[in-house]
Amino acid sequence: VDRAFPRSARGALKIARTLVALAAFLCFVASGAHEAYTALAGMETVITVLFLLLYLLRLDARMRCLFWPLADIFNSVIAALFLLVVALFAIIIKTNKGILAGGVLGLILLVLCIVDVVLLCKKISLDKARGRSAPAK
């Protein structure tokens, strides 16, 4: 277990994304919102928890079949696009206060996704070799 990850900026951001996505999911469920709103918030919660566990348990270092930070970037970008559409629809329609709260939380989650992409892009250097294939200096 990587005990330093939750205290890092990326770890705190993943935890914040998970909590905000869970809060949006609960708002949509409690207000009886359309299934698309609930499904998006629920999937974002589950996927973010899985990435959090991946980094927390250092599984990204063990499973080298995929470049996990790049997969995380793709997930964040796609989630941000879907959240933009769903959150704006939820805020515009605002059938009740629960849907409005879920939409506002969706926009906050959108900002967190964009910040996550920026942090991950700063971390990744595609020119740098990874792992054992790095040349000896």
UniProtKB/TrEMBL annotation:
Listed InterPro entries: Marvel, MARVEL-CKLF_proteins
Coiled-coil annotated spans: none
Keyword Transmembrane: yes
Cellular component GO terms, alphabetical: membrane
Lineage top rank: taxon: Eukaryota
Keywords, in A-Z order: Membrane, Transmembrane, Transmembrane helix
Protein name, as recorded: CKLF factor
Main location: membrane
